[in-house]
Recover the amino acids of this structure.
């Protein structure tokens, strides 16, 4: 089975900087500029709220990466300025990043699902609320302009 086309691609050195910063086995916060190393759009977002990630176990996301690769998962929370009915004011997107087959670049995939389950690792619903985010993160992201 062929890999699907990645949503993001970039310089292997940038990926290694983020991989070393995040480490493995614990969740670390990333700034928008850190995230921009692997997802350039993040550095330009005026709706950026919070970003965190972690190294994943060898063999994770085997549909994208080989059995010996240790990808990263990064979750990005952004303010949704125009929520639709029944949507929260925030969006959570989950991305996985890992090396390309030849190691010359990284490849990133948006693997967001609308409602997480125990097997995918996503920390919250895609459309979420400040209360849900507060309940899930030790470092409390703040809405633009102060408290909700």
């Amino acid at each position: 089975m062929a890999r699907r086309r990645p949503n993001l691609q970039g310089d292997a050195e940038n990926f290694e900087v983020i991989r070393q910063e995040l480490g493995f086995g614990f969740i670390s916060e990333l700034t928008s500029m850190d995230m921009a190393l692997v997802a350039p759009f993040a550095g330009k977002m005026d709706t950026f709220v919070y970003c965190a990630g972690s190294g994943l176990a060898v063999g994770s996301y085997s549909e994208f990466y080989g059995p010996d690769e240790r990808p990263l998962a990064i979750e990005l929370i952004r303010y949704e300025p125009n929520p639709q009915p029944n949507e929260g004011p925030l969006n959570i997107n989950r991305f996985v990043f890992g090396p390309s087959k030849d190691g010359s670049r990284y490849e990133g995939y948006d693997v967001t699902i609308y409602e997480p389950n125990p097997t995918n690792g996503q920390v919250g619903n895609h459309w979420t609320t400040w209360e849900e985010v507060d309940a899930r993160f030790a470092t409390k992201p703040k809405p633009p302009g102060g408290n909700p």
Q: What stands out?
A: Residues 56 and 71 are 6 Å apart (CA to CA).
